[in-house]
């Protein structure tokens, strides 16, 4: 539909070609023309919505859904064409809300999911049967497989209620029943995407369907020797338990021998997830697992606090020790300075004493030399005179 309200001529022409063709094998190739039509508008724009409405009006979406059931080995482009058509179908359905809501939401979209899962199962079987020496063919097959699963993810991300259809589909369990590593990883990733989009979907499933899915995931975790499979299956089970805690009791009761088998994955690179899963299995119930989770959190907080407190005390002790060392060095420096000053003072006093003794000795030596020069009589007179002076001074003191 253009801006003036008329239908898009390209959609009309394509619908006419599909209706007039007499060969069913030609229909998929004709429908690939939708790719150019959709790429001519900006995704999410008003023009894109009008274009998708025209595609729905001329029943091209219904034809896309039916075409996915074909055997694409007989179609031009083979399974590449099937993967492209699945992607086109997903793009056409996102953002579309036609007036015939019951037909679209209640019939077409669930059938689209079923047919896309069926197509992915066919490609998976072809991929597994392809000789491993045919690298090119295997690479093309796995790329087509992942493209279809991405289209399914895109579709149920836009229409959340389809997550229930994906998990209920028997084709999903068929996709899980394989020992192939590449396709298994993609399917496990698909289920995790389902739970990210709708975390309550597991509670809507019948026990038979839920147990069947759990059986396959648990089998891969216990029987596989591939590390990627073990890691992905562990994350998948953890996601199941996180969004639906009551599954913990089911897993513990249904798979009693699972815990010992998990030991083979120790040291394989996903220890954190493995440790969480073992903790859930040891707890045995959601309530106990929650309590143990809180206990581990409290233990971790206490350990962090003790570590912080110890480091703080060590820092304070280091600061006190540094302060003590500084004070000790300063005190020792002052003491050394005092000892040096005392030593210098004693040395000075010693030098002065020596100088006085030397001067006294020199004075006496001069006196002796003078006495030696004087005659004896002069010496006697001088001695008597000094004695007389001493007696007079003594008498004065007595009086």
Structure, described:
It is a single chain. With 399 residues, the protein is mainly alpha-helical. 79% of the residues lie in helices and 0% in strands. The protein contains 18 helices and no strands. α12 (207-223) runs antiparallel to α13 and α16 packs across α17 (286-373). The mean pLDDT is 86.
Q: Helix-strand pattern, N to C?
A: HHHHHHHHHHHHHHHHHH
In whole angstroms, the N-to-C terminal distance is: 153 Å
* Mean pLDDT over the full residue set: 86
**If you compute it from the alpha carbons, what radius of gyration comes out, rounded to the nearest whole angstrom?**
51 Å
Q: How would you sum up the major sheet?
A: none
The percentage of residues in β strands lies in under 5%
Question: Helix fraction?
Answer: over 70%
State the shape. rod-shaped
Topology, element by element:
Layout: H1 9-20, H2 26-31, H3 33-39, H4 46-57, H5 60-67, H6 78-93, H7 101-129, H8 135-158, H9 162-168, H10 170-176, H11 181-197, H12 207-223, H13 227-243, H14 247-254, H15 258-261, H16 271-283, H17 286-373, H18 376-398
Helix pairs in contact: 5-6, 5-7, 6-7, 6-8, 7-8, 7-10, 8-11, 11-13, 12-13, 13-16, 16-17
Task: Put the structure in a nutshell.
By secondary structure, the chain is mainly alpha-helical. It has helices at residues 9-20, 26-31, 33-39, 46-57, 60-67, 78-93, 101-129, 135-158, 162-168, 170-176, 181-197, 207-223, 227-243, 247-254, 258-261, 271-283, 286-373, 376-398. The model has no long low-confidence stretch (mean pLDDT 86).
